[in-house]
Specification:
The structure holds 2 protein chains of 2 kinds. By secondary structure, chain A is of the alpha/beta class. In chain A, 31% of the residues lie in helices and 19% in strands. In chain A, the strands form 4 sheets. An 8-stranded mixed beta sheet of chain A has the order 1-2-5-3-10-13-11-12, sandwiched between helices. In chain A, strands 4-14 form a two-stranded antiparallel ribbon. Chain A is globular, with a radius of gyration of 21 Å. Chain B has one domain. The relative contact order of chain B is 0.16. The chains are: A alpha/beta, B mainly alpha. Chains A and B meet through helix 1 of A and helix 1 and helix 2 of B.
Chain lengths: 375, 47
C-alpha cells in the first residue's frame, strides 16, 4: 500500500470519528426535555388533537391542560416559541409542575416550536443545554434555535412572504414561529404549527393567550408587554399590578404593520386576547462575550455592563446580570397578574390558580426549588 | 426538491472522497477530511 493511501485511511477514520461524535451530539438534541406534570395537570394531549395533519411531524407538541372542565375563563401560555429564549420555556415548565387551577382552565405549550429545540443556530456558539440544580439532583433543559430546524423545513426562500398580509421579510423568517400566524393549513411546517395553535384557540374558545419571549438587552422592546388593541385594557391593569410589586415593565401596542406575530394575528383572527411578554436575555444578544451555560443562567456579561455605561441598552445592566430566576419570575408574575386582572373585571368568569412561585420567592429559592424530581 | 439536493450532496461527497484518496499531499487530504464531516452530517439529515 502506498504512503498516500495510508494517510488517506487515517484521515478518513478521523473524519468518520468526528462525524460520529458530532452526529451523536446533534441527535441527542432531538430528545425532548423531561417535564414532570404537577398535581394540577388534568391531561396531556398533542397539538395534533386540534389539527390532525400535524400528527407524526416534528412540529407536533405537547399541550398540558390544567383544570380541564372547570367553569370560568381560559388561558393559553406559549413557551418555547423561540427556543433560544429560555425564560419563556422555564416559566411554562414551572406552571406545568406547580400550578393548580381553582377556577378556569390553563393550556400550556412549553415547546411551541418543538422543531426549534432540536438544533442550535449556526455560528452562535450557544450551549446545547443548561443545567439547573434542584434538591433532587440536576435537571437539564435544551437551549435551541430561534427557528424551525432546516432539516425539518427546507429550503428557505430568498424572501418570505407572509401569507395573509403579503408582507415581505428575510427568507430565514419563514422558519420563525412568531412570523407565521395565523398559519396555513397546507403551508410550511412552521405555518402548520401556527395553524394548529389557532385551531386550539378557536375550538377551546381560549380567553387570553400569553406568548413568552426574551430579547437582546440592546433591543427596544424589552421588559415589556406587547398587547393587541383589544387586550390593551387587560394589559394596562396587569402593568399597574406589576409596578405595584416593584416589577418595572413597559406596555407596547402591537404594531399594525408588523405581521405574523402572535400579539397581532391571534387578536385579528381569533376571539382571544393576545399579549406577548419580553425579558432581557444576554445570551441571544449581539454585544455578548463568551456564550455558555453560565451566561444563560446568570446573564452576567462584562460587555453588556460596558454597553450600559455607554447608554446603548434599553434595560438596566450591572455586574449582577439578569439571572434566569429573575427573567422567569417576571413572566410568572405577569401571567399571575393577567389572571388576577381578568378575574377582577370578570368575577363571573374567573381565572384563578395557586401554587405558582411568586417573583420574590423565585429570586430567594431559585428555579430548582420548584422543579419536581424526575421519575 | 430535497431528493435533488441530497443527490447533489452525495455527488459532491463522492468527489471529495475521491480527491482525498487520490491526493498525495497530506495537507490536501486533511482539508478534504474536514470537508467530509459536514457533508456527511447533512446527507444523513442530522444537521
Amino acid at each position: 500500500m502506498k504512503k498516500h493511501h495510508i494517510t488517506a485511511i487515517i484521515f478518513l477514520a478521523l473524519a468518520g470519528a468526528a462525524a460520529i461524535v458530532s452526529g451523536a451530539s446533534f441527535l441527542a438534541m432531538r430528545k425532548p426535555d423531561i417535564i414532570v406534570p404537577g398535581p394540577g395537570v388534568s391531561e396531556v394531549v398533542m397539538l395534533s388533537n386540534w389539527y390532525p395533519q400535524l400528527k407524526g411531524t416534528p412540529g407536533d407538541t405537547e399541550v398540558y391542560i390544567l383544570g380541564k372542565g372547570n367553569p370560568g375563563a381560559s388561558m393559553l401560555v406559549l413557551g418555547g416559541t423561540h427556543p433560544n429564549e429560555p425564560s419563556g420555556h422555564m416559566a411554562a415548565i414551572l406552571l406545568i409542575e406547580n400550578a393548580v387551577m381553582t377556577s378556569g382552565t390553563l393550556y400550556v405549550i412549553p415547546r411551541a416550536n418543538a422543531s426549534g429545540f432540536t438544533h442550535n443556530d449556526p455560528q452562535e456558539g450557544a450551549p446545547q443545554s443548561f443545567t439547573i440544580q434542584t434538591p433532587n439532583g440536576p435537571r437539564v433543559f435544551r437551549y435551541g434555535s430561534r427557528a424551525t430546524n432546516p432539516v425539518h423545513q427546507w429550503p428557505d426562500p430568498n424572501v418570505y412572504i407572509h401569507a395573509s398580509s403579503g408582507q415581505s421579510l428575510s427568507g430565514s423568517e419563514t422558519r420563525n414561529r412568531n412570523r407565521g400566524y395565523p398559519g396555513r393549513e397546507n403551508g410550511t411546517l412552521t405555518e402548520r404549527v401556527c395553524y394548529g395553535i389557532v385551531q386550539l384557540i378557536k375550538k377551546e374558545k381560549v380567553t387570553i393567550t400569553v406568548d413568552l419571549h426574551e430579547a437582546s438587552p440592546e433591543y427596544p422592546v424589552i421588559n415589556a408587554i406587547v398587547a393587541h388593541p383589544k387586550a390593551m385594557g387587560l394589559a394596562s391593569e396587569t402593568v399597574l399590578g406589576l409596578e405595584m410589586q416593584n416589577i418595572t415593565i413597559g406596555l407596547e401596542p402591537s404594531p399594525v404593520n408588523l405581521r405574523g406575530l402572535s400579539h397581532r394575528e391571534l387578536g385579528d383572527f381569533t376571539d382571544t386576547l393576545p399579549v406577548l411578554m419580553e425579558t432581557a436575555n444576554a445570551s441571544q444578544g449581539r454585544l455578548r462575550g463568551r456564550t455558555d451555560e453560565a451566561l444563560v443562567l446568570t446573564g452576567k456579561d462584562k460587555w453588556y455592563v460596558k454597553a450600559q455605561k455607554l447608554g446603548r441598552l434599553y434595560v438596566p445592566y450591572d455586574e449582577n446580570g439578569h439571572p434566569l430566576e429573575e427573567r422567569t419570575g417576571r413572566h410568572l408574575a405577569g401571567i399571575t397578574e393577567l389572571a388576577f386582572s381578568w378575574t377582577l373585571e370578570n368575577p363571573d368568569s374567573a381565572l384563578e390558580f395557586t401554587g405558582v412561585p411568586a417573583y420574590a420567592e423565585l429570586q430567594e429559592k431559585g428555579l430548582g426549588a420548584f422543579l419536581r424530581p424526575l421519575p | 426538491m430535497t431528493i435533488i439536493y441530497l443527490g447533489i450532496l452525495a455527488a459532491v461527497l463522492a468527489l471529495v472522497l475521491w480527491a482525498l484518496v487520490t491526493s498525495k499531499k497530506p495537507s490536501f487530504q486533511a482539508t478534504a477530511a474536514m470537508v467530509i464531516v459536514p457533508l456527511l452530517l447533512r446527507l444523513l439529515l442530522i444537521k
